[in-house]
Batch of 2 targets.
Target 1
Amino acid sequence: MTRLIKKHSKSKGLKPGAVVYVGEQRTEKVTIDIIDYNETELEEKRLEKIEDCFEFKDSSTVTWININGIHDVSNIEKLGEHFGIHALNQEDIANTGHRPKFEDSGEYIFITMKMLNPKSEDGIESEQVSIVFGKNYVISFQEKEGDVFDHVRERIRKTKPRVRFMGADYLAYALIDAIVDNYFVVLEKIGDTVEELEDELVSNPEHEDLETIYALKRQMVFIRKAIWPLREVAGSMDRTESELVHDFTKPYLRDLYEHIIQVIDTVETFRDMISGLLDIYLSSISNRMNQVMKVLTIIATIFIPLGFLAGVYGMNFDTSASPFNLPELSLRYGYIFFWMAVLIIGIGLLIFFRRKKWL
Amino acid sequence: MTRLIKKHSKSKGLKPGAVVYVGEQRTEKVTIDIIDYNETELEEKRLEKIEDCFEFKDSSTVTWININGIHDVSNIEKLGEHFGIHALNQEDIANTGHRPKFEDSGEYIFITMKMLNPKSEDGIESEQVSIVFGKNYVISFQEKEGDVFDHVRERIRKTKPRVRFMGADYLAYALIDAIVDNYFVVLEKIGDTVEELEDELVSNPEHEDLETIYALKRQMVFIRKAIWPLREVAGSMDRTESELVHDFTKPYLRDLYEHIIQVIDTVETFRDMISGLLDIYLSSISNRMNQVMKVLTIIATIFIPLGFLAGVYGMNFDTSASPFNLPELSLRYGYIFFWMAVLIIGIGLLIFFRRKKWL
Amino acid sequence: MTRLIKKHSKSKGLKPGAVVYVGEQRTEKVTIDIIDYNETELEEKRLEKIEDCFEFKDSSTVTWININGIHDVSNIEKLGEHFGIHALNQEDIANTGHRPKFEDSGEYIFITMKMLNPKSEDGIESEQVSIVFGKNYVISFQEKEGDVFDHVRERIRKTKPRVRFMGADYLAYALIDAIVDNYFVVLEKIGDTVEELEDELVSNPEHEDLETIYALKRQMVFIRKAIWPLREVAGSMDRTESELVHDFTKPYLRDLYEHIIQVIDTVETFRDMISGLLDIYLSSISNRMNQVMKVLTIIATIFIPLGFLAGVYGMNFDTSASPFNLPELSLRYGYIFFWMAVLIIGIGLLIFFRRKKWL
Amino acid sequence: MTRLIKKHSKSKGLKPGAVVYVGEQRTEKVTIDIIDYNETELEEKRLEKIEDCFEFKDSSTVTWININGIHDVSNIEKLGEHFGIHALNQEDIANTGHRPKFEDSGEYIFITMKMLNPKSEDGIESEQVSIVFGKNYVISFQEKEGDVFDHVRERIRKTKPRVRFMGADYLAYALIDAIVDNYFVVLEKIGDTVEELEDELVSNPEHEDLETIYALKRQMVFIRKAIWPLREVAGSMDRTESELVHDFTKPYLRDLYEHIIQVIDTVETFRDMISGLLDIYLSSISNRMNQVMKVLTIIATIFIPLGFLAGVYGMNFDTSASPFNLPELSLRYGYIFFWMAVLIIGIGLLIFFRRKKWL
Amino acid sequence: MTRLIKKHSKSKGLKPGAVVYVGEQRTEKVTIDIIDYNETELEEKRLEKIEDCFEFKDSSTVTWININGIHDVSNIEKLGEHFGIHALNQEDIANTGHRPKFEDSGEYIFITMKMLNPKSEDGIESEQVSIVFGKNYVISFQEKEGDVFDHVRERIRKTKPRVRFMGADYLAYALIDAIVDNYFVVLEKIGDTVEELEDELVSNPEHEDLETIYALKRQMVFIRKAIWPLREVAGSMDRTESELVHDFTKPYLRDLYEHIIQVIDTVETFRDMISGLLDIYLSSISNRMNQVMKVLTIIATIFIPLGFLAGVYGMNFDTSASPFNLPELSLRYGYIFFWMAVLIIGIGLLIFFRRKKWL
């Protein structure tokens, strides 16, 4: 289930800048993967301990240090100290409830955002990804193993892809682009759900659909919270004058910005559509109630008067006391007249109902 | 059907700038039409292969290269290479789900937008049109043959129209203007539907109307997504300081901007009106329910008490056991008194209902 | 009826700047009225043909050329050529669906706006008025004869009014002010309708009221579309640095701006109130439904159980077969006991309903 | 009653700047009160005629000229001429429907705003107050006698209050502050009404409450129209660079600005709450309908089947013709069995309803 | 109970800048706590009278003067005079209904905001906290004892925390940070309530839930009013160029700003969710009404026609008078046929209802 507000209380009262893991309790071992490359060479390995990646800070090659697991904050602190990451940014990395943000500290650029995964059945899995990149290193922090970066890895492994000829900024861009691209996948999935639900609501609305609509609504609230601040992040990135971002990366950042705008557009459209779903649901329910009422009214309107008529001829007025008392009862065709009256009343009312378009 | 989010997944994971066709699967042959003209001369032809248009890049005449079909991306790549179009713009051309945008690259100006066609019965057909224009060429990319540019073609073919005396920028403007003009046609058609529906909803609302309202709503969402970003596009165009846009074209661009504002105004008005339709529908439904309830209540309120009365005189109290038991039954005018009571109760209730304005 | 989108299709495909009349079909003769004045002299006449007013362009007196009828576009073209009005502005004059706008071309200032008339019974009549003013002439274009400028004419005819001592800019201001003043008259009329409707809705809502509400809503949409862009127009007018606008006219322009803001405020207030009307209507309807339900429930709840009781004593259990079968029937006071039971049940239920505040 | 749009028509067609009283018809004599003071001296008197205050224009003492009654426009014109107030500002003073505004004419500062009075039972009384202040005079125009300035008067009369040591700008500020302070009183009164109404709506909603809600809504619209433009007025006042406003008055103006923001905040909050009231009302109504339906359903569902059962045993099938015809009627315990069936059905349905939580 | 508008009337009419306590009546003694520290030393004590803290104004150590209780305004006035706090700021401190604000007076920085406490059962307790800090002192004013600063106190008491090495600005920041951190606790509590309520509303909506929803809504209005202006406050703080704020505190202020944005985001999300709760409630209610109607309709539709049938055979047509009168009554299997008809009608209707998905 997607909680809308991450538990923040654990860190309450601690000094600002204290690196405290705020998120689900995890016990998995933290894994550290390195991809180190330049135009011609490529090295990939899984590190034993965090200290092993320190040497890459000042190497001439581009190094991607990917850390799966931020619940062991000592890693973040050690890395932070060696790579000169500000205590507050270290805190941001460990706080999985943080809002997407972009910060240019001069020495490095810090970006934190949400990676969405439509894996699970009952919703969307959100993972916080923080990216720190300097002159020739990119450090990415994820909450756990498994990500949307496989395509980036494959591109790096190829012989002569563009990524191998460009710097750390382009790699960082490629990672963010992969995350944003994945938003489309998530939104497509939601779009399909919305369209299916819409058809179902018009034809056969159930009380359970209300829960589905509300779950969708919450999902959109959740996604919106994750994606909305990205507009600002992308804007800052696009406008940044940091030396860490090369001119030839700029068009890609502008392209990224446009993609994010499109994601936000789509999210807003879906919010509108989901609000519309509630209208359809309510209107379908009220339509059905209308139909129920019509059936009741038709039956009651026909048979209550007829019941009265039958009641009349079931009365025990003493026919022997007076010729005025229920003379119909002793008519030769009395019973047949009765049924004719019944048919006339019944058919007359049916015609009335058809005129009213209730039938 | 107008999908709200184009399938984007196919291109996921590819390197940014990879020219991948994102859109409906098509098999038609791509056609390439050339109109090459200056003040005095005019040449029109259909090219065999894309390379045949390369010669026009640096000719002194104005050349309009119109490419119907972007599913064969090799054309885009070849053209892009020869005319110096940036890889990311090539990607934009092939991505039919792209947001309208304006980009001034210095060498050329790139515009992408949606062409709407009210052709199909069940909705609006949207086609992506990208326009690239440089000093004396305009390249337009469409998804398939058939467009709204026939009037522009006819104007070019005339002997001395304004378009023949002006540059590539004016031609590009004329194409965009033709697309925007067509939005009015689409909106008029929707306007007619809205007005018809409104009359129908007030007089005789059906459950199907809800689907129509919702379909209209989605159409407006779709059109809005296509048109809204044009405001920004037109603004950029109006303010551009590119040398490719001549001063005498500027007033036309401002005029275009105003037209787009008017289209957006109309779209917003329609959105308001369509929301209003839902209110009318719901209120008509609830009004009808009210009428159903009234009929039920009138019939039941009259005949249930009367039924009770008939029931009373159908009771079998032993009149012989006591003079107090149902003495009415043996009255000479008992039955007539009964019917008088029935009439008095019935008419009294009818008067009551008329007072309540239920009749 | 107030159409929300003017038919625009007629002009589709024509070259931009083509002066095409877009509006209702008209056959009346176009009339041209001239008022030419300075501080001491005044001349008023109706011209035979458009060329007769050309002489006034460079006269030292202030000349007001009022053209009633824009369906004969040749007049506009001739005037335009002589007075140097840009082709696009000529197109704007002839397009009755144009958005209010202000344009300063250097030689002249062009303003187009809507004149509203509350004349007709079933709504508001809108007429497009375009005003072009230069150094000492004001040309006003109306769709047909009959306008809100009579007060301005009377002021000019007086011996020493302010208008006679000021330039063409003040005259143009006076015309616009007359149009804006008239908006208040239209809004007052709508305000009265809204207040009447409100009283009616609370006391006695009818299904027809829904149509009235919706018609009001559309009227407000229409008026809003006409008036909203005026804010921008007035803003531009207020800030203009054109030499055509004298310093001593500026305070009047600021005053005009404030009036327009007030009109817009009122329009927004009315929109709010009309939305509120729908709430009142729906709530009144649902209240009435509630009352209908109460009557049904009271009657049914009292008489259905009583009917059952009467039914019980109408059963034919064989009293002779067993003393346990319906012994009540042969009691001396059986029938009287029955009526007492009926009264007790009836009165008991009435007390119950009064407790529930249904009576 | 608070009219939302003041009749503006009377002044229609008059030349701009014509000083015409626009407001309720009044016949009271206009009164003119003078308070003239400096640090040591104080003089208070009621003037006979407007000309008597002319002498104070250039006196070195601070003079507060308070005019109760603006329906005699000759006073305004005479004052205006002597104190150099622009014709358009004179018009603003006389137009009681004017929007709050701030204008710095260089020679004097002109402010117009609404004074609200919660005096009357059925709503809020609004009075237009215009304040003109120059170097050492403050002229205030009110619609009639009776205002919220008594506290200011008392402060001036005291021996050594701050106001006596400061200039006309501080006095003007003190008057505006008194008006704004009074808004809080009005809003508190409305807040109490809202809270009472809320309690009533939850416990016992009546149809009349809808009218109360709507009246509150209109009141808020009215107050909002009066107060909203003050934000801008206060902003202009705070930022003004007029020499008429001393530096030591500035912090007070900023404080005033904050108060106005707080008033606007409260107004917005109340609007939200009043919208919420409608939701509560509608939901309470629908809840009550639900209860009505439940009672009807419980009674009908129990007694209609029982009525049928009684009807069965009231049938006249000829028991003598066949042993299969209604054999129950001649059973020894038939009637007792019947009542047992009645009890079983009745109790069974009651249990069913309790399970459904309808009881 | 959280009142939405603090009684402001008590101070009405007083001169601006008059320090008047506006808040709940209190009688507790005001307590004054001092923490005075530098890098190496620490002194904590409770002062007897306000004058005892005057000596700390110019000491080289950082001094935190915490005053619990602002109802004794003489303390504020004495402190204000000694520390040079402007009269208007003194007024702000005493006015518990003040809007959060930031003011840089040059000599000191003044901040006022709300401290929220989720202590009480029936809502949220709000307390006004004003913070004044100068070069080496921080004065905090609270309404009463008990606050959220214990963690800050503990950090100061530790041997070598960061706070001991930094100035008064950092201490002020730490206090504000503690208040903002506590907002998360409050919001988490509300979040839990919302989620619980949501589950309850879907499964079993009660009329009381409406009151809970409305109470939540009011709470959010209240919190929003308290928190929303903080965005501006934090923005001013972040951008301030005051010498009182050191460069090394700046990143902490930016971090604070982000936290506040996140709080506001969450508040907005909750407002959305609470609006959604009302939709769920209304839809659940209408769903239940639907179910009630269905039960009524099923029972009535089956048994009213059957009752009519039984009524028919209860009629007393004289079978002896004619063979056409109720011949069914004397059939051998008449009663059995009757029950078969009953079963056929009953089962047929049940099948009909199942088809309609009412069962």
Note: The helical segments of chain E are 73-83, 87-94, 150-157, 162-165, 168-203, 207-239, 250-312, 334-355.
Target 2
Amino acid sequence: MRQTSDMSTLNRQYRLAARPDGLPRRTDWTFGEEPVRDPADGEVLVKVILVSLDPAMRGWMNEGKSYVPPVALGEVMRAIGVGRVVASRNPKFAEGDFVAGMFGVQEYAMVDGKGMHRVDPALAPLPKYLGVLGMPGMTAYFGLLDVGKPRPGDTVVVSGAAGAVGSVVGQIAKIKQCRAIGIAGGKAKCDYVTRDLGFDECIDYKAEDVRRALGERCKDGLDVYFDNVGGAILEAALARLALHARIVICGAISQYNSTTGMKGPANYMSLLVHRASMPGMVVFDYAARYKEAAADLAGWLAAGKLKAREDIVAGLDNFPEALLMLFSGENTGKLVLKIAEE
Amino acid sequence: MRQTSDMSTLNRQYRLAARPDGLPRRTDWTFGEEPVRDPADGEVLVKVILVSLDPAMRGWMNEGKSYVPPVALGEVMRAIGVGRVVASRNPKFAEGDFVAGMFGVQEYAMVDGKGMHRVDPALAPLPKYLGVLGMPGMTAYFGLLDVGKPRPGDTVVVSGAAGAVGSVVGQIAKIKQCRAIGIAGGKAKCDYVTRDLGFDECIDYKAEDVRRALGERCKDGLDVYFDNVGGAILEAALARLALHARIVICGAISQYNSTTGMKGPANYMSLLVHRASMPGMVVFDYAARYKEAAADLAGWLAAGKLKAREDIVAGLDNFPEALLMLFSGENTGKLVLKIAEE
């Protein structure tokens, strides 16, 4: 192993400093630097190239029990990333390998290799491994197919349709012979969803009454609703269920920054009226089957049946403001922070 | 066929006069009388003995789409009942038959026999056919076993545990080797649930913090929650789920009379955290299998494994006030209005 770092190489990092009340602010993190050390036995040093910005990160900043432990105060902000191995004392990884894993919002990650996997920039550009070939793609794949269980001819509605997960959900629905209806904010996103991604319809929640629009465009009700947003849009979907509908609870981005507490869907008794169900899902449960999903997704990508866009913001310094783009709905496609050149 | 009625026999009836705002009031019905006519070909005239009082009746009084059409203004108030055939021009039913069906809140029902079935007062007292051997029993049976899918050793929690449905849910849970925890209001009901019905525990929501009590008594979380009440108790249950828990949405009695709109469970994202699901159920879907359930329930009753109590109020005149007992929690067991002698 070549020594690639010395005490003069610095690792710049965002560490969690406070638990946000409402939208996160720059002051909820401390931005500092520390020397990069050499890997110990079994360790791998990764130079982070791309940091994934995901709505789930907001939840990880909260105290209390969830599907993963919260980020501790003082800890490097948790984030998935793609990087290059610059030093390894782990036989599974070699210097020069491109890898994806839980690297955090920092320039260098020292990891034990668990949960990290190699990615191939010759097969797909690196940002794709954070989007359609990464967690968002896996979430869409298992959330729709395993949890939503669409049948050919079903009407599948997805919110956040121009986002990293929603865009894939609707395209897989089309591949599976369903009718795909997106919900997104603004004409540009809706055009992207229908023209570029091939959804049958897209409802602009900023311009339309979603409940009425769903009523008009899903006369027989919706069979699957894949929810990324919660709030009023979840209620609109509940009001338009077909019998035996499945509502996949994947996220609730409209609620994550509420300072008055989360709001539940007032009309949840529609589940009874329509003999519907509302299962929650967490992608990590499907880790043993990621390869199966990745093979399908890569195949559809190669065949042109699946399209994916990334929205790339440059500069580690910009992390706090870039993360907020998710909540203001500024990004189209997978939001990625680029912090180093390949 | 003997003529059993003439224009001098009067049928006293409650007809829906207004759609209630909040708790129903006596003025939401008109109490009138009309002559009883003779059955036409295919019809059956039933003298109603018992009227079932059910929380669902509140929902039937509202306008708008639900799992059954609303009761129309001017229509006899819908209710399940038990009665005796006093005249029949339908070959399936004979004078003297005891029958159960959708007879309405009235002294005589003229029906076509569809959905009506014979009951045997020699096998079980008539009120049982409105409770444990009627819709509440069927609801408990299919809601728990088919929708909740409990496995031996599971912790099953049920609200409205001293009520017609909840009391049967917990006892079936015990029969199926589960741990049964009830939630009910007041010491007398809780004592009934644990001492008479054999639940393992009962939480008194009037005296205890339900969320804390569930935390203490279900250390490993609850596997099945059978919800009859909605509101804060549903939220308490959501806060205490085990992984892959099932929340059976059967009713929401705490919400039916809200004048400020229904309230959804604020912490529904617990479904995601715990990979849980929240299916709704309507007992009418299981009509083809009622006999299967009735055989099991009657067998358990006969074997002393299942107990059922009815709370019987006498007098058709008392219908409006008797119905309200459901919402104030005054009844223990199945609430029945007795309007004639057998």
Note: The longest helix of chain B spans residues 135-148.
